[in-house]
Write a structure and sequence with these properties.
Layout: E1 2-7, H1 12-26, E2 30-34, E3 38-45, E4 48-55, E5 62-69, H2 76-89
Antiparallel strand pairs: 1-5, 2-3, 3-4, 4-5
């Protein structure tokens, strides 16, 4: 298991908008169960499957992603880098 912490909007409306855009972009790879504040996810890519949970207390400006499963070819630091880049672009 690995923990990743990335910036996340604290404003509820902005948070919900970011969450919806993330769901739209990533839904082809897996499923998400939860809200903009916390939940779980799992899915598959051509190089392996992934699973985990995420949470961000209301008012927090940080999203904590707990990886339970990841493709073995991809490092946690690479996943963190991509998560930061992805969230900054939505």
């Amino acid at each position: 298991m690995a923990l990743i912490r990335v910036p996340y909007p604290s404003d509820p409306e902005r948070r919900r908008a970011v969450y919806e855009r993330v769901l739209n972009r990533l839904s082809r790879y897996g499923t998400f169960d939860g809200t903009a504040d916390e939940g779980t996810f799992h899915g598959h890519t051509p190089i392996g499957s992934f699973a985990g949970a995420y949470s961000s207390p209301v008012g927090s400006e940080e999203l904590v992603i707990e990886l339970h499963k990841k493709p073995w070819l991809i490092s946690v630091s690479r996943i963190e880098h991509e998560a930061r880049r992805f969230l900054a672009s939505v």
